[in-house]
Amino acid sequence: MRNNRIGAYLFSFPSLFLTLVFGIYPIIWALRYMFFDYQGFGTPRFIGLDNFARVARDTEFWHSVWNTFIYAGGKLVITLPLSLILAVILNQKLRGRHLFRAIFFMPTIFSASVMAIVFYIVFNSYNGILNQYLMKLNIVSAPIDWLGASFAMLTTIIIAAWGAIGNYMLLFLAGLQSIPDDIYEAASLDGVNPVQRLWYITIPMLGPVLQMIIMLAITVSLKGYESIMVLTEGGPFGKTEVMYLYLYKLFFPLTTTGTSVQNIGYGSAVGFTTAVIVGLVTWIYFWVSKKLNSIY
Amino acid sequence: MTIRKILVRTPVWLLLLSMSVLLLFPIVVALLGSFKTNLELTTGATLFPAEWQFKNYVQAWNQADFSAFTFNSMFVAVFVTVGTLLVASMAAYAVDRVAFKGKKLFILLQSFTLFISIGAVVLRPQFDLMVSIGLQKSLWGVIIILISAHATAFFMVVGFFRGIPRELDEAALIDGCNFYSIFWRIILPLLRPALAVVALFTFRGAWNEYILPLVFSLTRPDLQTLPVGLASLRYGAGAAVENQLMLAGACISILPLLLVYIFANRSFMQVTAGSVKG
């Protein structure tokens, strides 16, 4: 039993086979096609690094990279502090804390694309529900163009934060539970106020967990594009175009906006570049947070 | 002391209550709005419907094809859940209980697929693979690809395996069980509560999946799942936008998850919390 190798290979085979065929092969496929000129039909033509030269010159792509940083940065700035504060509050013996946890986590269980439809009806510029309320309460006199050029990015960030706060609250809660209570007891004897307690005890004590959660948050928010795709398709005028959405359009042109053409060779090169960008950002964060840790 | 306590407590409660309102607002809008008329939705600025329009659901179900979308979503989610549980728990059993050559490489491979993402690029070769075995015209293509992304479930099950003592395996071995019957008769029954949590997680993921079924149904509208069918209403060709149908459709997707969540929210949260403790 302990060394039933045949059994072990037999049992891990389905997993291995599926992972290799549908997980690894597509990556190798892309690594090959990024050196080819291929539109999805005809014979692929080898063109060396030409696709990457085109990526470097592609202002639309770099614009989407810039948008991705705004989108991810905005989402993190709203989500992380809020979810940490909520976690700290709900980690105390507070009446109804289980109910609040359940309420705050609820948005994370629903489909991002389905909720994007609901948010479309809420934020709709002309007759959306939010504008109806704002005008009824006399907060604004004319409807705000939430999905227009100047507000669309903010709207998508709010929607992303809405779906993420509960998730990070729970991750922080799990981390907080590993901080021993006696530290807080000692601090309260010394007359520490709640803000000092958060800044000087909780955040340093979270240490590696905090670092891991932030890293997860960065990679997840750089990759998100589902709800943007449903809500704005990257518009208006590319204002909400993030890099993974731009990439999607190179492979599956959206029929409604219809601006891009399928381009597999070039798309593979863009895919490789986006993966490198995400990896680079993660690595820089890791490096900086390590430096900061050693200063402490 | 009491005044100080009130000074600290009041902003805390205000924050908790206002966050609850903000986070619940879209869900409440969807639930209540799905019973309103289109006119009420676009001009009303009311919370509750003047008259409960149950016919929105009848209309969405019959005319807007949500019966087909729901069937497709259910079909995909059920088979992906069963498949993922089977594939992940079998692999986890081998990895946790047997020392075999290539085990480290196998684990490395699984974690690699978790961290590397080249986005929509993989969809094209995945689709081509399904074309080559003739599965692009059915939901089985979607199901198999979703099962292949089982790395998270695999690591979750491996974590749960740690809670089952190896002495049990050995005792069963002495009693005449072999490698396979230990898995079926000892491990799986003991893992049942843990697998229920993984099943919940997997079912939610498959039920909510948008991009993959979208790509498979681009030329086959009959394969649309709930998120895909719903999103297509947003850019519906020519037809007047019918908000009440979109909300009724959204609720058809939301309600099953919401019902399960009300009864099992601890299990939902256990998955997320567990990923930190690792």
UniProtKB/TrEMBL annotation, chain A:
ABC transmembrane type-1 domain mapped to chain residues: 65-285
Subcellular location: Cell membrane
Gene Ontology biological process: transmembrane transport
Keywords: Cell membrane, Membrane, Transmembrane, Transmembrane helix, Transport
Chain segments annotated as transmembrane: 7-28, 69-90, 102-126, 146-176, 197-222, 264-288
CDD domains: TM_PBP2 (cd06261)
Keyword DNA damage: no
PANTHER family for the chain: BLL4140 PROTEIN
Family membership: Belongs to the binding-protein-dependent transport system permease family.
Name of the protein in question: ABC transporter permease
UniProtKB/TrEMBL annotation, chain B:
GO CC annotation, single: plasma membrane
Principal location: membrane
Subcellular location: Cell membrane
SUPFAM superfamilies referenced in this protein's UniProt entry, alphabetically: MetI-like
GO biological process: transmembrane transport
Residue ranges occupied by any ABC transmembrane type-1 domain in the UniProt entry: 70-264
InterPro entries: MetI-like, MetI-like_sf, RhesusRHD
Segments traversing the membrane: 12-32, 74-93, 105-127, 139-161, 182-203, 245-264
One Pfam short name: BPD_transp_1
Highest taxon of source: Bacteria
Organism per entry: Paenibacillus montaniterrae
Protein's name according to its UniProt entry: Sugar ABC transporter permease
Keywords assigned: Cell membrane, Membrane, Transmembrane, Transmembrane helix, Transport
Membrane topology: Multi-pass membrane protein
Family, as annotated: Belongs to the binding-protein-dependent transport system permease family.
